[in-house]
Amino acid sequence: LLWHKKHENNSQRAVQGFVDHHRESMPDEFSLWLTDQLPGWKGSGLQFHWASLRDGDKWKEEAPGWLLTSNCSITREVYFAEGGFNESFPYAAWEDIEFSTRLRMRQIPTFFNPACITRHLHRLTLDGYVNRQIKAGYSSCILSGLHPEIAPSLISPEGLREYSDEKLAYAIQKAKEVTTGDDTKEIRYQRWSIALQYASWKGVLDYIKEKGRGWLALPHVHSPELVMHVVSCASNLDRGDITMAQLDLGWALDKHQ
Question: Is the pTM of this model over 0.85?
Fold first, then answer.
């Protein structure tokens, strides 16, 4: 409330707080890596990319595009004016980013208050996060369909071509092979990252298989621009907007016969 009052000259605004681990959760190295809270602020950024809000030793006060529902607030007026959360997301994954994307497009600022802290009382495990990444990969297709311009940053055709269930299983196996000590930490982090990346690709492929039609082209393209056009065409087909789907197809074929 104090942070909203501090920035009340911005009639439309949101506030992002910090998310930490509850002391009873006993966060291990994997949890700290996921949440960007390792010494030196080096981590995966998959759960909370806090490092992006740091400028050297100081926190940034503005966080455009941030509104993580783990700890945030927004005025009722702005929330309903923007239409609230999109209810097409089946999981708690990317729905807050989709909402914050709309805020950023409308140039509604998010102010970051690192002293406003919520502490999560649950442990993050590799198996649990693999399942979460599968759901996140699935939901990333929904986000891409709503905002095709960001699809190339979320969907990797090369990764989709590389994926197999056997590779995912092997990556998880290697990620679970415990190593300790500073001299092997980079190996640990790389193995965790690879396993979670394969899990995300599985989620994307699950969505493609379920939706079919235009989405089936995604694993076969080779440029970010084509990812955007394919996603836009496929999502317009899903919405029944044949005219826009034809335009997307025309733009894609014009440059990529």
Answer: yes
